[in-house]
């Protein structure tokens, strides 16, 4: 196969702006591969001052019917003439996988519709779910003029925190459980949900699942009054705590405060038959009506952008480490293991080396 | 309450060396709180060239009986006269919690035994499980002369990756499931297990659970031959990928290679009655006999130390960010949201600012 030529960034941007799906697909592939021409195209494509799309994150445990639900959402938005893009992020490990591919094939019925753009992003066995590329791709889809951008991912590991970062609205999907409903939504994840959906609600236990989610949310609201002060205390007590965790604590306090006002809706759907999906769209509409153009949306997106920039910065720092003179990192690691150096001292040394630019 | 005086680092180190449990408890509290005197004590306490303890990570989903299992392990090691320290890391969110406390109370029967030291670490609602403190505390317990250091944590989110970093041996605990056994161990987590335990093996489905774990491990071994090249390809294709993910990929390839030699043991236990727990100790002994003093142990610990140093370095960089002149980060975030700057460009700017030391 001859090497593919590098496309002109302004050409790709112009073609995407004209609505050429092939150019958009090419751009997303470029972003996924970390190509610099793709990044340049994205820069050109994003126009200051343009309207925001509603970026909707859909997440939840495997098997809860997220893809079918997304398929119904596409249909409902299309009936109203809105253009919809779907980014399906697959965090499956080498040991799992497969299920999502089936879902994608099901969704391909939408591929002939020009108002719909569907794209899978494989996270290539990297633990942690959404990658750098998904945030960039989501911005590209917004810039390409899709008013609705749905980012769908299986709730595994870090992916829920990542999706909370890039989405304006997070839909947490669960289903009636087998006696242990409280496990259907993982501890520590409730906080990111803006809308809760109990899918497969024709199964036994749906009402109980709704009640349990509501009571968990109410419990959250009742502790919300103290959440802000708890977060402040925690960050005072652990100043060196991982910044991402601190950020999460702040986010938690913020969402806690938000909860004090109004509990997020908890809806029942049967995605297979479409039951309840119109209510979900109504809940999304109602949320977007409040968010669009608001200070709250700006603040949420700023927080997400900051978190993303910090991730990229960390990557940059770590790649710098690898080029440090004389394998300093390996030497320090050996000293730590021998008990000659403590890890925090090694980290300080590495920081100073990076600052001085001791790279090869 | 009058402010507690800051203890002398060399005094604490000396007292810990003499076996004073109260001094050790004080040290761990200091490390948990990020106190500089505690770090100095740890530096003094860690003696170059001393024997390594066997650091055993015990992890798995909630409700699989990890604490009871650890309790039995303590008993068996104590019968042989070995000193055992347990670090119980609680990654419970504000929405869950409670269960672990009960477990701790059960384990308190061990508190009167001087050869046993048990300590809980609350991760304070920070998502991600094990904190910086747990690695430091684990080293402190090793330096205090406990030959067996058990780090127990509920397998949520990032905690499995963290435990793989600090433990010499990871015991992955699961239990017979209700029809969906493959879910009892999360996708992407199989790779970190050195010993697999199906606890509550008196329940129906235990043999099936063992078979499923074995077949997953065999599947892993059969793809191990290509794992190294896959990881190399992935890192070539995504050079800017999150370093932690790349590290994980490398680790995966390594463990894949390890799997080619010998599959990790899969054991059945009934912790409540003690059934099978002697076999678990035997498996741990056999692994330690191979590991102790080996190149493999050194390499594993060096990898862990490097990953930990990188985490601390990232924290350091992010805390530096917060002191950047004129709130550069906030300004960039606002520019990103307005579409005037791409996130990767913002990250580059932040990197240069940190390098130049543009702090207040």
Query: How far is it from the N-terminal to the C-terminal residue of chain A, by CA?
Result: 35 Å
Corresponding CATH architecture of the largest domain in chain A: 3-Layer(aba) Sandwich
- Rounded to the nearest angstrom, the radius of gyration of chain A is 22 Å
- What does the largest sheet of chain A look like? 7 strands, parallel
Write the topology of this structure.
The structure is a homodimer of 360-residue chains.
Chain A: H1 9-17, H2 21-32, H3 36-45, E1 54-60, H4 66-79, E2 84-90, H5 99-107, E3 116-122, H6 132-143, E4 148-154, H7 159-166, E5 169-174, E6 195-198, H8 206-237, H9 243-261, E7 266-268, H10 277-291, H11 295-321, H12 328-337, H13 343-356
Helix pairs in contact in A: 1-2, 1-3, 2-3, 2-6, 4-10, 8-9
Provide a compact summary of the structure.
With 360 residues, the first copy, chain A, is an alpha/beta fold.
């Amino acid at each position: 196969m001859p090497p593919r030529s590098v496309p002109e960034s302004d050409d790709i941007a112009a073609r995407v702006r004209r609505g050429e799906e092939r150019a958009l697909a090419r751009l997303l592939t470029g972003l996924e591969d970390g190509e610099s021409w793709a990044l340049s195209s994205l820069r050109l494509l994003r126009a200051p001052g343009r309207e925001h799309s509603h970026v909707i994150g859909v997440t939840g445990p495997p098997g809860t019917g997220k893809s079918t639900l997304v398929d119904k959402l596409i249909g409902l938005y299309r009936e109203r003439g809105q253009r919809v893009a779907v980014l399906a992020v697959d965090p499956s490990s080498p040991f799992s996988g497969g299920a999502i591919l089936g879902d994608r094939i099901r969704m391909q019925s939408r591929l002939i519709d020009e108002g719909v753009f569907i794209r899978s992003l494989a996270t290539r066995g990297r633990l942690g779910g959404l990658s750098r590329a998904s945030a960039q791709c989501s911005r590209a889809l917004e810039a390409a003029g899709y008013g609705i951008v749905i980012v769908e991912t299986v709730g595994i590991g870090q992916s829920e925190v990542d999706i909370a970062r890039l989405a304006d609205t997070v839909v947490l999907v669960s289903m009636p459980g087998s006696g242990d409903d409280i496990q259907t939504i993982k501890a520590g994840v409730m906080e990111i949900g803006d809308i809760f959906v109990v899918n497969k609600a024709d199964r036994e236990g749906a009402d109980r699942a709704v009640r349990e989610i509501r009571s968990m949310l109410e419990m959250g609201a009742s502790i919300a009054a103290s959440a802000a002060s708890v977060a402040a205390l925690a960050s005072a007590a652990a100043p060196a705590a991982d910044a991402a965790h601190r950020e999460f604590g702040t986010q938690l306090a913020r969402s806690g405060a938000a909860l004090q006002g109004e509990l997020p809706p908890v809806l029942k759907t049967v995605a297979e038959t479409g039951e309840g999906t119109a209510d979900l769209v109504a809940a999304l509409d109602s949320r977007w009506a409040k968010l669009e153009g608001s200070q709250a949306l700006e603040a949420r997106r700023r927080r997400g952008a900051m978190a993303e920039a910090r991730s990229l910065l960390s990557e940059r720092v770590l790649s710098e480490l690898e080029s440090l003179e004389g394998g300093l990192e390996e030497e320090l690691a050996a000293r730590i293991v021998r008990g000659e150096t403590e890890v925090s001292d090694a980290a300080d040394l590495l920081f100073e080396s990076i600052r001085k630019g001791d790279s090869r």
